[in-house]
Amino acid sequence: MNTNPKFDLANGPVAELAASVSVPFEQARAMPKSVYTSTDFNEIEVENIFRKEWVCAGRASSLSKPGDYTTLEIGGEPIMVLRDADGQLRAQSNVCRHRMSTLLTGRGNTRSIVCPYHAWTYGLDGQLRGAPAMMHNEAFCKSDIRLPQIRCTEWEGWIMVTLNPDAPDVATALQGVTDLVGHYRMSDYVETFRENHHWNTNWKVLAENFMESYHLPVCHEATIGGTVDLAEMTCPEGEAAFNHHWILKNESFKLTLAHPDNTHLEGEDRRKTYLLSIYPALLITLTPGYFWYLSLSPDGPDHVNILYGGGLAPEFVADPEADAHFATLKSTLDLVNEEDRGCTEKVYRGLCADMSEPGPLSHLERPNFDFAKYIHSRVALT
C-alpha cells in the first residue's frame, strides 16, 4: 500500500525501476536516472531501507575497551554505539532526554555520557545518573529516564545496528556469506585505519561501483588495475541479502595473496579476492592478505556519507615487516579510493545531464542488476 502521498507507484521512479528489473539479466540496462536523482525516491529509500535494514557501524575491534564509543546517523536518527561496563556492545539514542541535545560526537572513550547542554549525565547503559537543579520538578524521577535502546549485534567482526525491532537476525540472513568466505576467518582481520568521507555522488552509484570490477583496468590503471584479468572474474547470481563476485589476483601486489604463514587457505583461495556487497550498504573487499570496506549512508540524492576502513590479515600483522605492510596498504587504498571518487562523481554529473540515458550491462555487472532488484523489492513496499 502506498502511504506516501508524494509517491505514485504507478508512475515515476518506482515504476521506471520496476520496468527496468522486469527483464532477464541478458537484456538488462543500468537503473533509470530518476532512481539516483529524485529527492522523493531518496526519502523512500531512507524510510524503507536504511531505517528498516541492518547498517554497519564499523569493526567491533574498534570498540575494544569499556567506554569506547562511535557515533553515526541512521535515517536521520543520531545513534551512539559503545562498549559498556560489562564489555558488551550497546547501541542507543544519542539524544538527551531533557531538551534533546545530541550527546556524544565522533569517536572516543568516556566513563559516562554527559550532555553538553545542561550536564544531564548517563551511565554507559543509558540510565540517567544525574541531573542538576531538578529537585523542584515534581514529575521528575531519575530512575524512570533512560536513553532508548537500539538493536545491535556483532557479526563476523562487524558492528551491525538496526532501528527495526522486527529485522531478521543478521547471522541467519547472512548465513550465505559465512558459507562462502567463513574459511577466510574475516573476524580475525585487524583494522588498522578508519576514516569518514563525504562525496558528491548518489550512494547507489558508489555501491554499484564497488559491486563490479569491470571498471578496474581503466579507472584503477595507475594502482590495482594491473593485478586483475577480466577473464578471471566470476559474477554469480546474488542472494536475497547480498551479492558477490570474485577475482583471481596475480603476484604484482603481494598483500593480495595469502601470507606464507597462512595454513588455512589452499589452492586458488590463496589468491582469490572476494567483493562482498551486504545490502543495503556494507561493501567489503576480502583478500587473503587484507580487507577494506565502505559503509554508506545517503545525504540527499546527490551526496553520500562514507565510513572507510581496512586492515590486514593476522599473519601480516604478526610479520616483522608489519609496519611496512600497513604503509603500503594504506597508501595504495587511499589512491584507489580517490580514483573511485573521481569515477563516481563523474557518473553522478552524467546522470544529471539531459542527454544521458542508462545503457546495457556487461555480464561482469551481474551484481548491479541484483542490487537493482533488491532496491525495487524495498521501495515497492511503500
Description of the molecule:
By secondary structure, the chain is an alpha+beta fold. It contains 10 helices and 17 strands. The protein has helices at residues 12-20, 34-37, 39-50, 170-173, 175-181, 203-211, 216-219, 314-317, 322-351, 366-379, and strands spanning 55-59, 68-74, 77-83, 89-93, 107-109, 113-114, 121-122, 128-130, 149-155, 158-162, 190-199, 233-234, 242-248, 272-278, 282-286, 290-298, 304-312. The strands form 3 sheets. It has a 7-stranded antiparallel beta sheet, with no helix packed on it. Strand 15 and strand 16 form a beta hairpin. Helix 1 (12-20) packs across helix 10 (366-379). The radius of gyration is 22 Å and the shape is globular. The termini are close together.
Notable characteristics:
382 residues; 17 strands
Q: What would you say about this model in short?
A:
The chain is of the alpha+beta class and 382 residues long. Helices cover 25% and strands 25% of the residues.
